[in-house]
Design a protein that fits this description.
There is one protein chain. With 448 residues, the chain is α/β, with parallel strands linked by helices. The strands form four sheets. Strands 14, 15, 16, 17, 18, 19, 20, 21, 22, 23, 24 and 25 form a twelve-stranded mixed sheet that branches. A hairpin with a 3-residue loop joins strand 2 (33-34) and strand 3 (38-39). It has helices at 41-50, 65-74, 103-108, 111-117, 135-144, 206-218, 224-235, 266-274, 380-384, 404-411; strands at 7-12, 33-34, 38-39, 55-59, 85-89, 121-126, 129-131, 149-157, 165-169, 175-180, 194-205, 238-242, 260-262, 303-310, 313-315, 319-330, 335-336, 341-347, 352-353, 358-364, 369-370, 375-376, 388-389, 395-397, 433-435. The chain contains ten helices and 25 strands.
């Protein structure tokens, strides 16, 4: 298998994530929390590290402070050698007073990093997806096919092609056409219902990439999918790497083969969480042979005083006292008080779910203290007056919407405080994950 010693990786982590609003009000898309203790960016970084690619630049732009702090605490690598690093790179404006204008421009503005590192291969990967991938296998395919550029691909339904870059290939997997988010497209060979879509993960020969970026900059072109790759089809050897052939050690037989989710919308983000739950989940978070790394967690274990818990995740520092959790996902330091009922919910750090609260199909962002008796997810018209509600009925409670002041006012009324023997645990950087789990909803990837 190909050595990864001279591979440099760029992770495109500057996404604004407008379709994930309000979860992206104060953070960029790669920094959005996922599951019990991770962030979305942890998946691509874990895949690179597990693939022995240790030289990684993380290109950031929008609302990046939360992501920068996460990388600082979770992704400090031992200095085994000078080429072991995960380094955050904001726009340097070396070529003028402009932020990154697109994916290709982001790399172009950092050409000096490529030229000083002098790699043979540059991997350009997105930071917005939930998946496992052995990048070494893609590099091996890239070299064996004699490619200048390799594009990771997977089948998507024809009606979803306007969300992806779509490629056409010949019998040897060479790309003959590349269209960015076409309204209509021809199906892939052997299928009448699916086309071959780009995953946004690319392997470039370094010299080819440098030349293409300089040429694109000279003509004002700034994006790989919209500009560079479609033009390179005519002049270079572009090949489609079939993600379905990627083999990950430790994958359980019941998991969905080739699991990959773009969590760029509230619905996709919500559904992907529940794909990780259950005894036989579609995507198992606890693969010891291919771990998804997260922040070190020095916090206390969760406390379950009593109640009923069905197929849920309870993060470290959580307190559950006489509540019902049904397909609920609690991140760090969440308190759920007596007679509360959470059904298909994601509750983020430091939130308090008050006595008798009922919440269904909702995402509660950080630092909410929901007062006793609240009902969310049962009257969507009423919910829309206060919160963002998706077309499918998922309610998103923004960070801090229910303030501590609201909570104190409620306590002056009839709601009792926590019992004396239950004490909230101190805040800590990240949770561990005690999980009972089950699979969930529809895949954006289907077999042709």
């Amino acid at each position: 298998m190909h050595s990864t010693k001279n591979v440099l990786a760029f992770v495109m982590a500057g996404g604004e994530g407008s379709r994930l609003h309000p979860l992206t009000t104060d953070r960029c898309k790669p920094a959005v929390p996922f599951n019990g203790k991770h962030r979305v960016v942890d998946f691509v970084l874990s895949n690179l590290i597990n693939s022995d690619i240790f030289s990684i630049y993380l290109l950031v732009q929008y609302k990046s402070q939360s992501l920068i702090e996460h990388v600082r605490t979770a992704w400090t690598m031992p200095r085994f050698g000078p080429d072991h690093f995960v380094t955050v790179v904001p726009p340097q404006m070396r070529n003028g007073p402009e932020w990154f204008q697109g994916t290709a421009d982001a790399v172009y503005q950092n050409l000096h990093l490529i030229e000083s590192f002098r790699p043979d291969i540059v991997a350009v990967f997105g930071a917005d997806h939930i998946y496992r991938m052995d990048v070494r296998q893609m590099i091996e395919f890239h070299q064996q096919s004699g490619a200048d550029v390799s594009v990771a691909t997977l089948p998507v339904r024809l009606e979803q092609c306007d969300q992806f870059g779509v490629v056409e290939v010949d019998a040897q997997h060479r790309i003959t056409d590349f269209k960015e988010k076409p309204k209509t497209t021809a199906p892939m060979p052997g299928s009448s219902t699916h086309a071959l879509a780009s995953m946004g993960n690319y392997i470039f020969n370094a010299d080819v990439l440098i030349e293409a970026l300089k040429r694109a900059h000279a003509t004002g072109e700034s994006d790989f999918g919209k500009h560079i790759l479609p033009k390179m089809v005519e002049s270079h050897r572009l090949f489609a790497y079939d993600f379905d052939t990627n083999v990950i050690p430790g994958t359980a037989p019941y998991e969905e083969h080739g699991y990959w989710r773009d969590v760029g919308t509230i619905d996709a983000y919500f559904d992907a969480h529940f794909d990780t739950l259950g005894v036989t989940p579609k995507f198992r978070m606890t693969n010891r042979q291919w771990p998804i790394y997260a922040s070190h967690d020095p916090s206390e274990s969760a406390q379950i005083e009593n109640g009923a818990i069905n197929r849920s995740v309870v993060g470290s520092g959580c307190i559950v006292d006489g509540a019902v959790l049904d397909h609920a996902m609690l991140r760090r330091a969440v308190t759920v008080q007596r007679d509360a009922h959470l059904e298909h919910c994601i509750v983020m750090e430091r939130s308090v779910i008050g006595q008798g609260v009922h919440i269904r199909r909702a995402i509660v962002d950080t630092d909410n203290e929901i007062p006793a008796g609240e009902r969310i997810g049962f009257d969507l018209e009423a919910d829309r007056k206060r919160f963002h509600v998706t077309e499918s009925g998922i309610v998103v409670v923004p960070s801090g919407y229910f303030s501590a002041t609201t909570r104190r006012q409620e306590r002056r009324g009839s709601q009792p405080a926590l019992p004396a023997h239950i004490r909230p645990l101190e805040d800590a950087p990240a949770p561990t994950n005690a999980s009972l789990s089950i699979p969930s909803l529809n895949s954006i990837r289907a077999t042709a």
